[in-house]
Write a structure and sequence with these properties.
TIM Barrel; binds calcium ion; 20 strands; Alpha-Beta Plaits; binds ligand C2E; five-stranded mixed beta sheet; alpha/beta; eight-stranded mixed beta barrel; Beta-Lactamase; rod-shaped; 3 domains; 665 residues
Length: 665
């Protein structure tokens, strides 16, 4: 829209005012003056005519006009009087300002322009004596009036223009101040709230400026509040409320940018996806509040550790993600994964409980393992499952073969659900022998899954799946029942195997009331409690020692014995070991198999045997494959052994055929 400036409007108003009012007024004044002038002239002419008439009468009466002629002679110089004539009663010129006419008959001539003829008859009481004729010229007057008129027109025109210019000037003064306000308003409109105007004076415009300043200050405050609220909203939308870490949304955004950046600069990226191992147990055993507190502590630790260029995000639950921009090679990503594991390895103290956490980490590299954030995340997730399947607390790199292995894992989980009902699951028993006598002093029940689809599946593979899916709870009940039933069957058949060892999963201890279950199973199978040993891995006890001690005590009160499985692999510490209500430690096979070498593991194995006897616990060496393993263990004072040297895990009927086990020396 075109704007007609206020100054032009003011100029226009003054112009019209001048034209419509001032000019007619001026014209009226001029006309009145002109009329007055004319009337005055007329009056003067009439008086003059009267005077001349008096003189003329005298001349006509005396019939001597010489004096009269002398009297009027000077008037020839008067511009106003063109001619002055005295006529007798016969219309003969007796006196005239034009002497050439004297004595001739008077001929009246036509009125010239701007002249006037005036005639006055001269009478006495009885007769007509003659007349006076004067020819007046108005040229002089009219010229004067004309000049005056032009001056008036000039004044009017000048007035009109001056008023227009004054209008523009006054308008400019006004609009210049308004323009200051306009500019400021526009700036506010464009989002610059830090505007204040200064319009000096004490008029409406300066007051408007003050109001404007107040308004912009108010707007500024409101805008700031709005901005803050907006920031908060954006923050909340992009961050996890629990930990304050970036959430999936922000992570995706950031990842997208990082990928674009990496593409431009030919960088490599690493995406580490990790999941806390067994975190569900904390929630299940201690409630979600405790779980949340632990997550917050972990989030704070990770933020401290990776505060610089890397982005740590909480994707929900116990899943985190770390994006490392710019890495040189796979090793770098591996080192960072190890750093995460080390960061988590420091125990978390929360409400007077101490938790030992670990994570399984999947690593994916850009561009090798995926071109976009969705694929990278999915592949890192796949690699993470791989890390879980490899025993947790570790990291794995993604490889294309992994995708198929995850698919296999899912279908395996589905099959495993039906394995018990279909009778695909059974227990094999591995003898445990007395190193001194070679007699069987017990058997360990080990689960076997023979799937029509996958063939014979190792427990190393299906037990972790069962644990992660929770299937282990039902499966564990079945295993306990089956082992006790089998043991009681052997006993009633006269086979004097002193005890059966059953492996318990950490989840079973955390999630179910294991003492009640064991007691019920013993009741239903009729197996004496002294014939049952429960194996629990060291890792679980470390996770929550206080609770473990409570549960183990309940189990022991039932009369069953407790063995710590895989002893040595879970960072055992003496500080808790002596407090545990246990009967036996099972030295992990990784140590036993080093016996006879000069390795540190062999020294540790000996130390474990010593530790056991110091604490008054039985010690059993697991994974005895070679004779010298048995010999050396025995020489250290270890009483029991288990391993392929004696027998692998066997089917119940195979086992019952074996009569006498002796150390093969
Ligand atoms: P584990 O409890 O440490 O069981 C001992 C494992 O060592 C068994 O493997 C056994 O076959 C193997 N082994 C025994 N002697 C030797 C030896 O001389 N050399 C070597 N290299 N290995 C030997 P298996 O049966 O494959 O079981 C693997 C793991 O699966 C077990 O380790 C246990 O953690 C888990 N598992 C097996 N059955 C059950 C079960 O019924 N319940 C639970 N919760 N876990 C089970
Ligand atoms: Ca075991
Ligand atoms: Ca073991």
């Amino acid at each position: 829209m075109t704007i007609i400036s206020l100054k032009y409007r003011i100029a226009l108003v003054l112009f019209i005012l001048q034209l419509a009012i001032i000019s007619p007024l001026l014209w009226f004044t001029f006309s009145s003056y002109r009329n007055a002038e004319m009337k005055q002239m007329e009056a003067r002419e009439d008086i003059f005519l009267e005077l001349i008439t008096q003189f003329g009468r005298k001349a006509l009466l005396t019939e001597d006009s010489s004096d009269f002629q002398l009297f009027i002679a000077p008037f020839t110089k008067d511009l106003h009087i063109k001619s002055l004539i005295l006529l007798n009663h016969d219309q003969i010129v007796v006196a005239s300002t034009n002497p050439l006419e004297l004595g001739s008959a008077y001929k009246s001539t036509k009125d010239e322009k701007r002249t006037v003829w005036k005639r006055k008859e001269i009478d006495n009481a009885t007769e007509k004596l003659g007349s006076v004729v004067i020819h007046f010229s108005r040229i002089d007057l009219e010229k004067r009036l004309e000049a005056l008129q032009w001056k008036g027109v000039g004044i009017i025109i000048a007035g009109i223009f001056i008023s227009a210019i004054v209008g523009v000037g006054v308008g400019t003064l006004l609009t210049r101040r308004l323009q200051v306000l306009e500019r400021a308003t526009r700036e506010v409109g464009e989002g610059n709230m830090d505007v204040a105007v200064s319009v000096p004076g004490h008029d409406e415009i300066s007051r408007l400026a003050l109001v404007f300043n107040e308004m912009s200050a108010n707007l500024r405050n409101q805008f700031k509040e709005l901005e803050q609220a907006q920031h908060e909203l954006v923050f909340q939308a992009q961050h996890d409320l629990l930990t304050g870490l970036p959430n999936r949304l922000l992570f995706d955004l950031h990842c997208c940018q990082a990928i674009a950046n990496a593409k431009n600069k030919n960088h490599r990226l690493a995406l580490l996806f990790f999941d806390l191992d067994n975190f569900k147990n904390i929630n299940d055993s201690y409630g979600h509040q405790m779980g949340d507190s632990v997550l917050r502590i972990i989030a704070a630790r990770l933020t401290m550790q990776f505060k610089d260029e890397n982005l740590v995000a909480h994707l929900g639950g116990d899943e985190f993600c770390l994006l490392i921009e710019k890495i040189e090679n796979d090793d770098d990503a591996g080192k960072i994964a190890q750093l995460i594991l080390d960061t988590l390895a420091v125990s978390v103290e929360c409400e007077q409980h101490e938790f030992f956490l670990s994570a399984s980490i999947g690593i994916c590299l850009y561009p090798r393992d995926g071109e976009d954030e969705v694929r990278l995340l999915r592949n890192a997730d796949t690699a993470m499952y791989r890390a879980k399947a490899s025993g947790k607390g570790t990291y794995r790199f993604y490889s294309r073969e992994l995708t198929s292995s995850v698919r296999e894992r899912t279908s395996m989980e589905n099959r495993l659900r039906k394995a018990i009902d279909r009778g695909e699951l059974r227990l094999n028993y591995q003898p445990q022998v007395c190193l001194e006598t070679g007699n069987i002093i017990g058997v360990e029940a080990l689960a076997r899954w023979s799937s029509p689809e996958f063939g014979l599946v190792s427990p190393e593979k299906f037990i972790p799946i069962a644990e992660e899916s929770g299937l282990i709870l039902g499966m564990g009940e079945w295993i306990l029942d089956d082992a006790c039933r089998q043991m009681q069957q052997w006993r009633t058949a006269g086979n004097k195997i002193p005890r059966v060892a059953v492996n318990l999963s950490a989840l079973q201890i955390q999630r179910s009331d294991i003492a009640v279950l064991v007691s019920k199973t013993l009741d239903s199978t009729g197996l004496p409690p002294s014939c049952l040993e429960l194996e629990i891995t060291e890792g679980y006890i470390l996770q929550d020692a206080d609770r473990a001690i409570r549960v183990l005590q309940q189990l022991r009160n039932l009369g069953v014995s407790i063995a710590i499985d895989d002893f040595g692999t879970g960072f055992s510490s003496l500080s808790y070991l002596h407090r545990l209500p246990i009967d036996r430690i099972k030295i992990d096979k990784s140590f036993v198999q080093e016996i006879g070498t000069t390795s540190r593991a062999a020294q540790v194995a000996q130390a474990m045997v010593n530790l056991g006897s110091t604490l008054g616990l039985s010690v059993i060496g697991e994974g005895v494959e070679k004779t010298h393993h048995a010999e050396i263990l025995k020489s250290w004072g270890c009483q029991e052994g288990q391993g392929f040297l004696y027998s692998p895990a066997l089917m119940p009927d195979e086992l019952s055929k074996i009569r006498d086990f002796r150390t093969r020396t």
